[in-house]
Amino acid sequence: MSIEANVNQGADAVPMFLRDVWYMAALASDFARGAMRRVILLGEPVVIGRMRDDRVFALRDICPHRGVPLSAGRVMTENTVECPYHGWRFRGDGVCSAIPSLVDGQDMDPARIRVRAYPAREQDGLIWIYMAANDRSSDTPKSEPPKVGVPNAKVRWVESQTFRCNIDHAVIGLMDPAHAPYVHGRWWWKVSPRLKEKHYAPLPTGFVMTRHQPSKPAYKMFGGDVSTEITFELPSIRFENIAGTVMGRRIDVVGLTTCTPIDAETTQVTQIFYWPGWMSFLKPFFMLLGPIFLSDDRKMVELQREGLKFNPNLMLIQDSDVPAMWYHRLKKAWADAVASGKPFVNPITERTLRWRS
Ligand code: FES
Ligand SMILES: [Fe+2]
């Protein structure tokens, strides 16, 4: 056994939350026209909503006048958000469009007042929010949110749980290949540890476990001849792309797992599945097993808190913890690139990992 790194080493140098990246913030279907909701993202209060013209928006949920949450106000017919305290109105780009108390002759231009606006996108049934390093609301994103790689991707199944842990432990817990027999094993879902050998390659901001025949029992529910590829990209986006032939028909099933930091001690973990309409027979399995398996992971990181309270040194070992080491390296490289303004260089190189699980 070689111990490659202590997880805590240099942790201070890397901020807990990465900036200049997209976070999955909500399900698009949760927002009818005129609806809005307060969320905390990366420790910041954000009101997410949908204007009357159907566009989604995300604003800092603090009225610049006297600090009242805008989420307690109303979405107006002219596509603004009205603060409940003095009725100031803000457009989706954060610019103030009305201050009702002003009277003729009072020389004040509301448009000079802004609340921070976060770039927001509705895509694949999800709302993505860009958390820029620079908090000027005029910032335009340097990238677009990750796309689900199937046409007309429709959300078929979702499970979202709040993990009482920081984003790093949530991400590492989900990418950790060695925990399955212990955390997810059950008398009716027996996973006996076997030797695994998987090939990995770098991606623009992460890495991929290249396409292979899956060995997990979960795939048995698909039957047929399927293969899978699992990608991880910063800040915390995991795609599982399952493709093949089932019952003589071509399938493309995509599982997306996102970890979105609420604050330093809380992370929202969401699993979303996309599959072709004719495969809706999968839904009962997911409804039954999905919440159980995600709860397994949640309970383990919450148990981990009991140890982490005492700030112990931790270990990362070969090869089963290599994805976790890669996560730390990617995160550091990204944070350095954002801080220095230099281009991000992916520190991962192609490699085959072997472990027993
Ligand atoms: S506090 Fe929002 S308008 Fe006064
Ligand atoms: Fe797990």
Using brief descriptors, characterize the structure shown.
357 residues, alpha+beta, Naphthalene 1,2-dioxygenase Alpha Subunit, Chain A, domain 1, 2 domains, 4-stranded antiparallel beta sheet, globular, disordered N terminus, binds fe (ii) ion
In short:
The protein is α+β, with helices and mostly antiparallel strands and 357 residues long. It has helices at residues 167-175, 180-183, 283-308, 322-340; strands at residues 3-6, 21-27, 36-41, 44-50, 56-60, 74-75, 80-82, 89-91, 96-98, 120-123, 126-131, 155-163, 195-203, 206-212, 225-233, 237-246, 249-263, 266-274, 315-317, 351-356.
Task: Tell me about this structure.
The chain has an eight-stranded antiparallel beta sheet with strand order 12-18-17-16-15-14-13-20. The two termini are 16 Å apart. With 357 residues, the chain is of the alpha+beta class. The chain has four helices and 20 strands. The protein has helices at residues 167-175, 180-183, 283-308, 322-340, and strands spanning 3-6, 21-27, 36-41, 44-50, 56-60, 74-75, 80-82, 89-91, 96-98, 120-123, 126-131, 155-163, 195-203, 206-212, 225-233, 237-246, 249-263, 266-274, 315-317, 351-356. It has two domains: 21-131, Rieske Iron-sulfur Protein (3-layer Sandwich), CATH 2.102.10.10; 155-356, Naphthalene 1,2-dioxygenase Alpha Subunit, Chain A, domain 1, CATH 3.90.380.10. The protein is globular and about 80 Å long. Bound molecules: FE2/S2 (inorganic) cluster and fe (ii) ion (FE2). FE2/S2 (inorganic) cluster binds next to loops.
